[in-house]
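Assess this:
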Amino acid sequence: MELLNKVEDYIKELYATHPHELLLFHNSNYTNQVVKCARELAVKENFTEEDLHLTILASWFLNIGYLFDFIEHTKQSVRIADTFLSKTDYPEAKKKIILNAIERVLNNKKSNNEIEKVLADANNAIFASKEFVLWVKYHRQERNYFVKPKITKRNFWQNISNLLNEHQYYTASAQSMFQQGKTENIEKVNQFLSEQLNSELPKNNQMIIEELKAELEKINQKVEKRITSARGYDSLYRITARNQINLSGIADNKAHILITLNTLIISAVITFVYSQISDVKYIEIPVLLTVISSLLAIGFAVIATRPHILPGEFKMKDFYEKKTNLIFYGNFYNMDYDEYDRAVRDMLKDQELLFSNLNRDQYELGKILGRKFRLLHYSYTIFLYGFIISALSFLIVLFLL
């Protein structure tokens, strides 16, 4: 007991004499929580006096390394514990147990003994805290102070979600005390993820298209005045191509958002079903509606962005009759260079042939773009109505049946 008091005084002195304002998460308050929880779990698990003593000693040193080196905190915690215990002539065998426990828990290795299991559960008791969301926000700020590049909000919350879903408490006492709170925090994290995704969604797809069309119309009005010049032709085709490429990028972004959002919805619904399927009758119906609508939305979004493979060659007869487009790579990548080179030279000599290829290139790009937005329209429509119907069905099942 005397040694425990010395260790407690030593750790508190380190925090007092080495204050670090940027440690918003791994600070003295967090260490005190871990020690308190480790003591409580060890008692509930009926530890012997010796194992209880070892567990509490390890919990005091567990996170002190963050005070001296955020990146190499594990090595620092082990070093500080080793130095202090060596000065007190602590038995080598017991010291080795403490140092191994600290290293394995901080490196997220599978626990080998009951001391490591309790220490790991105590260190992760924060997962069930009512202030979990606040602590996690502190953790992100702390991490961005010390680690570059900074992590975005969505990536951070996604990492937290993955961590919570993959984590399991080792001891029966921890499962009894913390599992329910952790489940509630998983739901909160999923809600944060959903809100972050919604904030990244563009305000209105049609509005963006109309703005681009308006911009194109203004530019075309200026170009029309100089259309007879070579520079006027260049501006017309260049601006048209740029706008079509921008619209294609918008379509791809929309598809990506739909795929990501619906994938998260399917994951969340499946998680909800596993936890509620035995408690709620007829839950299969809204789940099935949700999964089907999300899969259909994902399917149309994937088809919209799926590359279309062309043969990569054309007949010279079709080229001279203006039935093919020499500018688009999909029409010539399988041709011999000599044949392609001759066709390009002939095109540059014949202005009518050149304009025909340019016009056909813009036309084919427009056809591809039209197909993308048509499929995306179907995808968004399915997502909208599917989401509404699924939500209503969940409400009916949960509150009326």
Residues 351-399 form the longest helix (49 residues). The CA atoms of residues 289 and 390 lie 6 Å apart.
